[in-house]
Amino acid sequence: MTVVDELIAAAKRLSLLCDEEIGLIEKKTIVAHATNPLNYAWQHHEQFLRNWGGLGAKTLLLGMNPGPWGMAQSGVPFGSTEIAKKQLQIKPHKLTTPANAHPKRPVVGLDLARQEISGQRLWSLMFDYYGDGQSVFSNIFVVNHCPLLLLGESGKNLTPDNLPASVMKPILDACDKHLQQVVEIMGITRIIGVGKYAEKRACLAFKADKTGLGTTLGGQKISITTCWHPSPASPLANRNDGADWRANVISVLENG
Predict the structure, then answer these.
(1) Closest CA to 121 of 251, 21, 256, 244
(2) How confident is the model at residue 217 (pLDDT cuts 50, 70, 90)?
(3) Which helix (H) or strand (E) holds 229?
């Protein structure tokens, strides 16, 4: 199997495991609507893996979980729809809104006009810094730790760290395993958690010590660090019109 074929197989395994846990999450937590973009938006996610997963990147940017205007619509981590179509070259497919989706958050797909700000910021910086897609993905790849969109009754976006550990443990363990598989498949040597939560999950998955060094399943040492999250809700991301955030991310990319 090629690197891309292995990435696709790993994503499919994670997707199936996530589907099995959705009912319990909705029953036992404040999540009213848990949906899986690796399922209903698989045609887009597979394109992302096929287009960009085999170009030799050794640095992995790790996100937390999808937002309703990003990966939930595009199937791509931090997937602002315009960037998914133009820079990431994802060809639109008609997607079906899952039966348990929030009625205020239908799946529009790549035709969604609203853009995910975090995705616009992250991907725009990667293309500005590295150049074209070939250059971007020969240096970095991007994965969300958990692929599920988690929404409360009001439509509020929820994150895995705010849900009961007893309920989330099986799915987070599966997400850790998927992360380990991606690192092994691609030969990743460095993970940059986009935000502290993602860094924490990577450290847990690879049993990193206080220096940020972990060990892969094959015994390879891997460094784990973090950069600021690009969320518009973050004061750090907004400071100086985003200039400080961009400087932080570039510094981490260049210095580890």
Answers:
(1) 244
(2) confident
(3) none
One DSSP character per residue, 95-116 reads ----TTS-TTS---GGG--S--
First to last CA, the chain: 31
Give the confidence band of 256 by pLDDT, cuts at 50, 70, 90.
Answer: low
Per-residue CA distances from 37 to 49, 95, 216, 238, 244 (Å)? 14, 10, 27, 28, 32
Check: CB of residue 119 under 8 Å from CB of residue 83.
yes
Place of tokens 């060094």: 213
CATH of domain 3-255: 3.40.470.10
**Tokens in use for 229?**
């999250």
Sheet holding 190-194, edge to edge: 140-144, 59-63, 190-194, 221-227, 213-215
Query: Which of 110-119, 138-147, 208-217, 243-252 bottoms out in mean pLDDT, i.e. has the lowest?
Result: 208-217
Q: Where are the domains of the chain?
A: 3-255
> What's the rounded Cα separation, in Å, for the pair 189 and 60?
8
| 201 SS3 class | helix
CA–CA distance, 196 with 131 (Å, rounded to integer): 27
Work out the angle at residue 82's Cα, subtended by the Cα atoms of residues 81 and 85, and round it to the nearest 5 degrees.
85
